[in-house]
Amino acid sequence: RVVLTSLILLCSVYAQDNIRIDCYPEGGSNQQGCEARGCVWKPAADFDPAGTPWCFMNAEEMGYTATSAGNGVEWSLYKNSGPRSPWGTDLPSLKFSFRDLGDSVINVRIEDYQKRFEAADLVEFPRKTVPSIESLSVNVRDDTDPFSFSVQRSNGVTLFDTSIGGLIFADKFIQIATSLTSKNMYGWGEHLHQEIKHDFSRYTSWGMFARDEPPNAQGLDTKNLYGVHPFYMMMESNGLSHGVLILNSNAQEVTTIPAPGYVYRTIGGIIDMYFFPGPSPAEVVRQYTAFVGRPMLPAYWALGYQLCRYGYTSLQDMKDRVAAVRSYQIPFDVAYADIDYMERYKDFTVGSSNWAGFGDYVREMHDWGMHNILIFDPAIQADYDSFQRALDTGASFIEWDRSDEVMRSIQDLYPMAQNTKIMLAVVWPDKHVGFPDFLDPTSNTQQWWIDEFKRYHDNVPFDGAWIDMNEPSSFGTNEDHPFFFDDSDHPNIEPLRCPTSGPDADWDIPPYQTEAVYHYGFGSILATKTVCMRAVQGRGALRLYDTHNLYGWSESRATQKAVYQATGKRGVVISRSTYPSSGRYAGHWLGDNTATWQDLRSAVIGAQEFNLFGIPYVGSDVCGFNGDASEEMCLRWQQLGSFHSFFRNHNSKGLPYQDPAVWPSVAAATKKANEFRYAMLPYLYSLHYAASLNGDTVVRPVFFEFPHDSETLGLSEQFMWGSSILVIPALYPGQTEVNGYIPLGDTPISFYSVYDDSYGQKVPIGRSRFPAPTTFNTPTFVKSGSIIPRSPPALTTVASRLLNFNLLIVLNDSDSNNERVANGVLYWDDGDSVVEDITTNPHTETAFNYVFSPSQGKANLTLSVAIAQGPSQPKLEYLEIFDFPSSPSYTSFTLNGGVLSIDTQKSKYSPITRILMIYFGTPIDFSTAGVQTISWNSAV
């Protein structure tokens, strides 16, 4: 009995230590300071989880009491007698409310009765819902002190429960804590995560504040990166899933706690939460993107291979590298120019000497069927034509709040800006820059931006825009010796300085600054690497303290319109800084990574996370941006990158070239990987159509397709390409095989190899090792029951779109009718027209359905064209069928009942591999609306 009692007490203490809410999250706690805050001081024991706070809140006593408004959806909250906020005075009264937005998407709000800034007032979400078989409800406990609430499923499972306490609502510090139903959490961003699933074995804090900060893959690093995504998904113990968005644009953070649970903190706005019921992972993302907005459909050519380099010394240097890659006959679509092409790094200019003739070279690339994307930074030098045109047309910039705050030592250098309050800072140009205010409530700023793009396109006919430095980034803010003082390519001009003392410092040094500042240690403030938080936008109506995280989002929205109007085509925009709904306007690359194997592995996770965030056009800088890439690592990264929608090799100034042509082995591997990708482009493009139409993911975690297979929940080194293709890349040096997991479905399924080893053959379910020498393509497998539309690879997408289709058909196991079936879809449009509405965009959409009856030896392939608009699509040339049991009778083929000619010289069947190849005598046209059926019998 004594032993049992001791064990119970130990377990109770351990449980309590797993739900500590930190009272000193900014660090530097000691017993005296802790107790002065009215908190508990208890040093962590050796067996406590890593990161256990020594100073923690009396959370169960902290919060508000509640009085119902009597309508069942609204309560008045009053600060109780429990502990007070250490970070400003608690608001004495609040309003709590919830509502069902439709289809059981639940919105929970905790807000001041006095109107405060809300991100929802600025960010234009469609706020649509989609049906769900699940329903959620909110349970408010207003008879306890403090009050709490929970969100539950209809089956009674609690998904979110604030009864652990800790609610704080001060002017510049808001905190809410919850326990969770499982430890299977995914999302929150933007960070570099070492594993796809969050680690609840420790206390871990992740800041969310857009910052010009490169990812660090060398061990656990919780720093905030370029964008902000306060959205997460949970996989529950029963295989169901739900998602939660906390709509807030201030600096914020989340601390995961081992309970499991988390503590969310923000330093402005309100608590505005949205619960998405799922119940499948795919449905969660569909519900989320219906609410924030479906992702854009990139131009077809934007799915081709892309090459970039920061540090081309001249146009000829760029030409030489492009020619070197093309000389290896590598499929290749897009050549970039980084800021090197500009005249001293000023937007909308071309270097007068080394880059003369750049526009003509872009036109030459167009003749080859290639395209060009240019970089544009939102940093406009304060003394040249573009800046003057902005002022002349009434465009606005980020400004100081008051005239007396303006740094005259900078402002007076520039006659154009001298009589303005424009906040001038330092970025790449030689002189100070201003940042356009893309939240301008008038159309002036956006129209000026569009006009600059149109004017520039007349000179250099680019096809897409890469918008960088848009957190926004500012060099050396508040630093005495910024890095550019030691850069011979940049003048030693005075950096921006934000107030750090007195009443004007409240915005840049608020009572609490979040992990997004504390992570970097002494000397960092919110304005570090960016502009001052006390700046204003929206013609003075908005404080950058509230809107900073929206800058990249707002620029993406304006730039998409600029590309549309400048080019007259769809093109594509790639943005470094993102926010919920950025996917409507732009894709994303994973930032200034490093040429390491750890960074290579992190790219697998990053691409999946941004699909979760509704930004499927995503990828990494292949081979790494910083650092010297090794041959083997670059080869493996080229192979991995060939599965990411955004597929670009890019590296930094002063480093050796790392394009595939540098090493013959990498060139050979890239050619092979790219040919596989280009053959799959009709499938990949159709996946992006499904993302734009329904909110589906493109690159997705394996558990999305197999949520009831618990082994898939933590798979961080493999992924699905749509619902049909499983990819297990080689990610370690010296690797000659991969240790992969073939998942188990709810119904009998199989996977078949579509790479060099055992092509067309079934692989076993469970853990297996698959050969992966550098001369092979990445181990790739197709799920049974799939039909994959393909086309022969070509050197560009322009050329490949002219070639006929073929179908890869992978039969499923027999169904209840003893039939073997497969299904697939193909979306086809002109690939480059502006898509204003994905539902009405002219296109052809074909559903493929294959049924084979082994007992009758009869096969039917139905091509159902529901929509036939826009350009004619290529014809169907041949079929490749896996696991077919016998040779067909070539004379039995019919098309809609009429005789169908088969090319018997090319067609063949192997009883050993069970692969059937059927070539049609004349390729089949299926570009008109209606149903066509191809039938045949097995040979007797």
Automatic annotation (TrEMBL):
CDD domains: GH31_MGAM_SI_GAA (cd06602), GH31_N (cd14752), Trefoil (cd00111)
Cross-referenced Gene3D superfamilies: Glycosidases, glycosyl hydrolase (family 31), Golgi alpha-mannosidase II, Spasmolytic Protein, domain 1
Signal peptide: 1-15
P-type domain boundaries: 9-59
Keywords in alphabetical order: Disulfide bond, Glycoprotein, Glycosidase, Hydrolase, Membrane, Signal
Subcellular location: Membrane
GO molecular function annotations of the record: alpha-1,4-glucosidase activity; carbohydrate binding
Any GO BP annotation: carbohydrate metabolic process
GO cellular component: membrane
Main location: membrane
Family assignment from sequence similarity: Belongs to the glycosyl hydrolase 31 family.
UniProt name for this protein: P-type domain-containing protein
The organism's taxonomic lineage, starting at the top: Eukaryota, Metazoa, Ecdysozoa, Nematoda, Chromadorea
